[in-house]
Design goal:
The complex is a heterodimer. Chain A is of the alpha+beta class. Helices cover 57% and strands 14% of the residues of chain A. In chain A, the strands form 2 sheets. A 4-stranded antiparallel β-sheet of chain A has the order 3-6-4-5. Chain A has a two-stranded antiparallel sheet with strand order 1-2. About 26% of the residues of chain A have low confidence. The mean pLDDT of chain B is 89. By secondary structure, chain B is mostly helical. The chains are: A alpha+beta, B mainly alpha. At the A-B interface, helix 1, helix 2 and helix 3 of A face helix 1, helix 2 and helix 6 of B.
């Protein structure tokens, strides 16, 4: 095992020595001298990506062990890739990307001249946005129609600085007097703005009937979004204009 | 241009290879050209030079008497300290020996491990 490891590092060293003069810049600057080579940048990016990968794969390990193992493995992986795939990266940057870029520009010019592809793409994108908006809008309407039916829980009403318990029936009655509907949603982390703009009262309640806190319309005026900062799932009850 | 073949290198022992690589790197790290680019040893060389230069320049600055010739002395000292800092770094980088140089280079090559170690140590002290 130790011998194999030693051989591995020996081979790496031989490779470094052999490639050193090949990679070193010319003494008199015949050509552009890069302070940090392209390979060094790729190595750096691969190391960062490798670290993210290994630190995720080693989450079962103790954090300190995972940190050092991931860091070491990331560098070794980058070394390995750069030794084995230098030719591949050279080909990508020297041939594939420049030729691909020129080809793309050429196709765009040709397609625009003969088929007006940019105009067609703009129309297609606009259609896609319209379709997406329609989908989102229908989803919101569907949610509003979801009238709640909570039974074993209480909610609290905040009124003039006092907090008092309020049942769902009370909430229904309060909403009904204003000709509003109860919206009792699913566990949520985001409520669409269109629903919020119509909401008159807000109540939180926890799972399994734990009591929540009301956020009145005076406190939440025309919010663009409504996001919980609690980690446990919460239900939101809204009193919504029909 | 490769001056060594793989066969030549494979005949060398582990220690000989180690020394050969160090010679190759050391020669180019202290050279005035940019052939070795921003390699780890080269960066250490720059940082050490900057450190020595600041130390020499500002300590010398404090010793310069406030005379009419102060500006001229500062001008001369600026370049002298720069020369001395380069010399100090070259000497230091030479006398610390092959193993220390390789250790520093490896610490920078395995920078995530070094960074992780620093984070770990700073975390321990809290």
């Amino acid at each position: 095992m130790l011998d194999a490891l030693k051989d591995y590092y020996r081979e790496k060293r031989i490779h470094r020595i052999l490639t050193f003069y090949h990679e070193a810049q010319p003494i008199l600057g015949a050509g552009k001298i890069r302070f940090i080579s392209r390979d060094a940048w790729i190595h750096f990016l691969l190391t960062v990506l490798g670290f993210l990968l290994f630190s995720n794969l080693t989450r079962f390990m103790p954090p300190t062990v995972s940190l050092f193992f991931s860091a070491y493995a990331a560098v070794e992986l980058s070394d390995f890739i750069m030794i084995r795939l230098t030719g591949f990266f050279d080909a990508i940057f020297d041939y594939v990307l420049p030729i691909g870029f020129i080809a793309l520009i050429g196709i765009l010019f040709w397609g625009q001249k003969h088929y007006n592809i940019l105009g067609k793409a703009q129309v297609a994108l606009s259609e896609y946005h319209k379709k997406k908006n329609r989908e989102l809008h229908s989803r919101i309407q569907k949610n509003i129609a979801n009238v709640g039916s909570g039974e074993n829980w209480t909610i609290e009403e905040f009124s003039l600085g006092k907090v008092k318990p309020l049942t769902l029936q009370d909430a229904r009655a309060a909403c009904g007097r204003r000709n509003f509907k109860i919206y009792d949603g699913e566990p949520f982390h985001f409520i669409p703005p269109l629903v919020l703009n119509k909401a008159a009262h807000f109540w939180y309640r926890g799972v399994n009937g734990t009591s929540g806190v009301q956020l009145g319309p005076g406190e939440v005026t025309k919010p663009s979004s409504f996001i919980t900062y609690r980690t446990e799932p919460m239900y939101l009850t809204l009193c919504v204009k029909p | 241009m490769n001056i060594y073949s793989r066969e030549d290198l494979q005949k060398l022992t582990y220690g000989e290879l180690h020394r050969l690589e160090d010679e190759l790197l050391h020669e180019n790290e202290v050279a005035g050209s940019w052939r070795i680019r921003a390699s780890a040893g080269r960066m250490v060389y720059f940082v050490l030079t900057a450190f020595f230069w600041f130390t020499y320049f500002w300590s010398g600055e404090a010793l310069i008497p406030k005379t009419e010739a102060k500006g001229l002395i500062q001008f001369v000292w600026f370049f002298t300290s720069l020369f001395l800092s380069g010399l100090s770094t070259t000497l230091l980088w030479k006398i610390i020996g092959m193993k220390t140089r390789q250790f520093v280079r490896l610490s920078l090559h395995y920078w995530p491990v070094t960074l992780g170690f620093l984070v770990w140590v700073s975390h321990l002290s809290h």
